[in-house]
Amino acid sequence: MAKIICLANSLKHSDRCIAGIDVSTGKWIRPVSSLDDGRVPKDVCLVNGEEPKLLDILEIPLADIGSGYECENRLILPGQWKLEGKASASDLVAYCESEILYKQ
């Protein structure tokens, strides 16, 4: 199981693309299915009958390794997604980098 703060939930080929920050490691995680394009079927990601919302803290059954070339991809395992709480914008500060990424 992985616990993430949801920072993305977008449409991908009539299903979803969900991603967020792993609470324990601070790394970006994108749950992916075994479908060719990795999209997450809507019925897989429902939490209490609803799609994840931004800043939801989700517990998701994920494999330790991913799928595809992107290191943030983690294969979804069977099991229910759980809502563990709601993060605030200030909770994200701990996961921000201290330096500007792009300088001119």
Write the layout of secondary structure elements.
Elements: E1 2-12, E2 15-22, E3 28-32, H1 42-45, E4 56-60, E5 73-75, E6 82-86
Parallel strand pairs: 3-5
Antiparallel strand pairs: 1-2, 1-4, 2-3, 4-6
Most strands sheet: 6 strands, mixed
Beta-strand percentage range: 35-45%
Structural class, from helix and strand content?
A: mainly beta
> What proportion of the residues is helical, as a percent range?
under 10%
N-to-C span:
40 Å
What's the average pLDDT?
A: 88
Uncertain stretches of 5 or more adjacent residues: 100-104
Name the descriptors:
mainly beta; 104 residues
Describe the structure.
The protein has one domain. Helices cover 4% and strands 36% of the residues. The chain has one helix at residues 42-45, and strands spanning 2-12, 15-22, 28-32, 56-60, 73-75, 82-86. The protein has a six-stranded mixed β-sheet, with no helix packed on it. 23% of the residues are buried. Residues 100-104 have low confidence and may be disordered.
